[in-house]
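Researcher: Re-running this chain for the archive, since the previous output was lost when a drive failed. Same request as before.
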Amino acid sequence: MAEGGFVQDQTSDNVLGNQSLDTLMLECPICLEQLRHPKFLPCLHSFCLECLTSYIINESSGKMASTSSFSCPVSRRDTESLNQSEDKQRWSEQFPTDNLAVEMIQHLQNTNTLIMCKPCDKKGNVNIPAKFWCDHIKFYFCESCKVGHHDLIHDDCEPKNITERNKSATIRRKMSATVCGKHQEKLEYYCEDHQILGCHKCIIVDHRKCEAVASADDFRYKLQTTKIENLLGELRKCVNSMEILIKDVEEQLQTIKEDQVTALQSLMDLRTKINERFDELQKELTNKLTASFKEEKENLDVSRKKCERLMLAMLKTLTSSQDAGLKEDAVGTISLFQRGQAEVESCKALIQELEKSSRSTSLRHEYNPDILTSNRATNLTLGKIAIHQQQRKLPNTAVLSERQLKMTKKININLQTDAKDCVVRGVVLLSGGRIVVGDKANQKVKLFTENTDFQCELELCKRPCDLCRIDDNTVAVMLVKLKIICVINVGDSILTSKSNIKIQNVTKNCLGVTYNNNTFVVGTLTSLYSVPQNRGEATMLH
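Model: Regenerated structure tokens:
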């Protein structure tokens, strides 16, 4: 690490691609356009005044009128209004103007006219851009004329480099926030208790009782020795994590797009086999499919935008760390460190939020194939759009917490009344910690609590081979050789037989059963069958 600043980071350069440092620094994280009337929050993230106003209004909608804070769109850090008596539409005007951004924008706007090399122009070589400026003779030089003309007669003079990158660096150093906004004194101290920079008046008035107050130079040295490199490492990991999550969201979006195309094609294939009186039904289902797709797309877009917004902010921080001006800028170093800390914490919080809310969604067009069979007393319908969702695990990222499986407790399901050692064929966990176990050896279904307490048992006429959940108070047991699905009610401490469904037109032993949407799916060694809950006639699925 170089003294007083951050090291060059090749990884972040690769991520930025063709974006210039100035373009990235001057981009609003909300509208992704060049900043207009830039305002910055206490966490040091800058936004267009108009964008920030709209964000605050949307963020506070639906909340209590007395709400006095909002979360930063990038770091999501809670931010208090400076004057809570004002209307929320004017909150954004209370925050300081980002003068550095204003100065850089003005500079970029003034660079449309190129400065030409003076000696080349006199020689007749027009339109040769200048790269250096000599204060002594007040001339602009290109690189060739600097060596061949200027350096021969002013060997003790070093012209200034006026390329765009150096101009911008000069402006950033010039505009660095080194003056206390409250007392207009130089910022020289840092209070570790309150994690804030201050001038000598701030320290005397507001922080005289604080235990950890150091000069800005001393605290910068403390950061250099241990924390800054670690923070940059965390930021790189967070950027990698956001890239992984963005890619994952795009893959999920592509999947449901393909599902949408497949479902629409299924609708059209079926539509060609029935008459025109189904136009309205087809339109209704198509609208539902489109609305479902749109809803899921919006949810995924929200997750992606959160990740992109935070990643952009972290890239800005990494880019800022490469500024050579930080080498002598204690305040800038500390401010950059504080901003990076907030972004790392926000990245971890966002990943935890996505872990809880991430779900896998599939869109399917489902219909009864009997409607295509002649001489059937079947209601003609185009079916339905089925939306299946389940919790999904996020792809691995560098900052995700590790997941582990561990045994919490053991339950002994052998009872004194059992004639044989238990052979478990199916376990279902219901709400309230109720555990239902199928015991094939003793031809029973047993009920336990999560505290390992035995509640009751229900004897069956034949051996159970599998067990599944119907709802929170009902399970189904497969009796293998009888080809019967036994439906059982599950109370807090009692099991009662509700009904038996005899599976028709299946000759092989039924070994497994599951339940979805009023239909059982039964498996033999070679085939899968669909069995409606209200009748036992089986239809082969596969």
